[in-house]
Amino acid sequence: MNETLTRLVRSKAPAGSDLPVLMTPAHAGEDLLSAVERLRPQIEESLLLAGGVLLRGFSVPAVETFQQFASSFGHPLLKYEFASTPRSAVSASTGAGVYTSTEYPAHQSIPLHNEQAYTREWPMKIWFHCVTASPEGGETPIADSRAVYRRMPGHIRKRFEPGILYVRNFGEMDVPWQKVFNTESRAEVQAFCERSGISWEWKDDDGLRTRQLCQAVETHPVTGEQVWFNQAHLFHISAREAEEREVLEEIYGIENVPRNTFFADGSTISDEIFDEVRAVLDAETVTFLWDEGDVLMLDNMLVAHARSPFKGPRKVIVAMAEPHGNLGRF
């Protein structure tokens, strides 16, 4: 076997991390779908122990191959609903449930997060497939959410445990509500909000404000371990560049910025707390370079993911499955 397939070069990783577990073909050119049954027991064990698996060197000739691989784990692929970032469905004859990764400009970083941890229902499994690897940057850094929880300072864990309040103002400065909810109907939006425990308020100029109290810490349903599971640092106003933040607060006021997070009681979370949160996330980050054809499979509760800035072409597609949540808790 080629040496590049039998070892994984990680440019950054905390001591003792096994992320991601590398799996390679039994022979050159082995088709990913043909390898599923051989690899399934090892994949499922590694997901629970390490949280993530990188399948490298397999033949993945089309989007449909990736879609069928993700679907083979026993759950229908999910639609991307109540979106927080722009994505597009991948057009393929059998590619239902496959999306582009977040369509932010190439120069921007996307911080570590667990998919849809800003809601009360999320996918347990998420897959990434590198169709085109960027010639510079474009990594998908990952981190063990159990390790993040353990490393997080006790005073922050205690303050976050009651939950995080997410406030979103949909309009010209953020993803429009029509795209987030996949509808032009206010009635359908309100029905979705009622089902999901989201309060809503229609504003002038066809604007919409939502509020939802969600988990900050969760218990994995299989391993029973505590995980850091929220997107408070992404939604908080401190995630904006300083100049952009100043403009947003000046134009809209703090109540009307596109998105923000608060403690469960509605009180303000200081920038300094998020400085500590981001430092913990950074300390637990694992980074490796994509190879074209790679498939990364993560337990979405056990492992967070991110995106590094890049130059040149890059195409990474995503699929999600196995919904899980806590709709009745709050």
CATH class of the largest domain: Alpha Beta
Radius of gyration: 20 Å
Integer tally of domains: 2
Measure the end-to-end span.
52 Å
SSE ordering? HEEHEHEEEEEHHEHHEEEEHHEHEEEEE
Keywords: Antibiotic biosynthesis, Dioxygenase, Oxidoreductase
Domain TauD/TfdA-like: 34-318
GO molecular function: 2-oxoglutarate-dependent dioxygenase activity
Protein name: Putative alpha-ketoglutarate-dependent taurine dioxygenase
Summarize the helices and strands and which ones pair or pack.
Elements: H1 3-6, E1 10-12, E2 21-23, H2 32-49, E3 52-55, H3 63-71, E4 98-100, E5 110-113, E6 121-132, E7 136-137, E8 142-144, H4 145-151, H5 154-160, E9 164-170, H6 177-180, H7 186-196, E10 199-203, E11 207-214, E12 217-219, E13 226-228, H8 232-235, H9 242-252, E14 259-263, H10 271-283, E15 285-288, E16 295-299, E17 303-307, E18 310-311, E19 315-325
Parallel strand pairs: 2-3
Antiparallel strand pairs: 1-15, 3-16, 4-19, 5-17, 6-16, 6-19, 7-18, 8-15, 8-17, 9-11, 9-14, 10-11, 12-13
Cofactor: Fe(2+)
Pfam families: TauD
Organism: Variovorax paradoxus
Describe the 3D structure.
This protein is α+β, with helices and mostly antiparallel strands and 330 residues long. The chain has two domains: 17-110 and 123-135 and 288-325, Clavaminate synthase-like (Double-stranded beta-helix), CATH 3.60.130; 149-279, Clavaminate synthase-like (Double-stranded beta-helix), CATH 3.60.130.10. It contains ten helices and 19 strands. The chain has a six-stranded mixed beta sheet with strand order 2-3-16-6-19-4, covered by helices on one side. The chain is globular and about 60 Å long. 38% of the residues are buried. GO terms for molecular function: 2-oxoglutarate-dependent dioxygenase activity.
